[in-house]
Amino acid sequence: IEGPQPALVFFFVFFIFVTTFGFVNMIIAVICEQFNNATKQARRHRELQDAESEKAKVTEALTALFQGSDSEKGNVTMREIRSALKTTKAAHILTREEYSATE
Q1: Angle at the Cα of 76 (from 72 to 81), degrees rounded to 5?
Q2: 10 Å Cβ neighbour count for 76?
Q3: 90: phi then psi, degrees, rounded to nearest 5
Q4: What whole-number distance in Å separates Cα of residue 18 and Cα of residue 66?
């Protein structure tokens, strides 16, 4: 190739433009992927916290229910448990947690 060739200027400008666009596109893709992963992780963490909170509420409610049904103050008999399970309060707690009173 001899002498100046002005047509190659257009080729190099186009090449630099496309290459730069590709690099910027990859950088944005990596940032978006990291953001999506962080969002999923935060959502999972929030769901676990909500589940633990709900479990603590149910445990607290059932503890109060069975302590309230204990007539001997220390030992809950099967009769007391059956009697407690027939109340609407127990039914509400168990249906909220999707259990049946027979389980």
Answers
A1: 125
A2: 15
A3: -65, -40
A4: 72
